[in-house]
Amino acid sequence: MTKQLRIDFVSDVSCPWCAIGYKSLETALLRMGGEVTVDLHFQPFELNPNMGPDGQDIVEHITEKYGATAEQQASSREMIRQRGADVGFTFDMERRGRIYNTFDAHRLLSWAEGEGQQRDLKVALLEAYFTRCEDPSKHDVLLRAVERVGLDRDTAEQILKSDAFADEVREREQFFQRAGIHSVPAIIINQRHLISGGQPPEVFEQALREIAARGDTPQPE
């Protein structure tokens, strides 16, 4: 009998481990065939909510934020590139020179959820930043991603020109922060089981099988 699972995937479109984590989860679900059906919700998290409109040089940013040396950063970039390749995601790590604010991207993702195309837009935004090295704070980049997945550009443009979905994004960010989520990706299954980080597919597959076997259901909202 197919089991249904709710998955809240708390993440940011400027987080490389979120891209790896999602593609690993996707791989795990494909391996499981029809054993489970998933009600997937991407939840907002901003790695850099106070980032200015011009962004910041990524080497400078990581040095300031984490104290990583140039050699450590180079090693990390190569590891991320390889982990992405392992699950079918392309990182162009050498061309990605800056990190940006992602609040408007999250607003569009909230809208896309109601349109039934949140997953497609999420992937398009991850690819825009990590594969094509585009600036996800720029409205033209966001609108191209919207068009790429078949969402209505005019509606998206009106959202970006307004404050639509801003309160909703902030409320969801605060909700998960109060729940103890302070790093991403954070993958919450049936609103009670947490998997942290960009785990390999095997970890997700094992966890999903175990949770499905327990037969628990999502808690009421």
Automatic annotation (TrEMBL):
Native source species: Massilia phyllostachyos
Annotated coiled-coil segments of the chain: none
Source organism superkingdom: Bacteria
Protein name: DsbA family oxidoreductase
Residue ranges of every copy of the DSBA-like thioredoxin domain listed in the record: 7-208
Gene3D superfamilies attached to this UniProt entry: Glutaredoxin
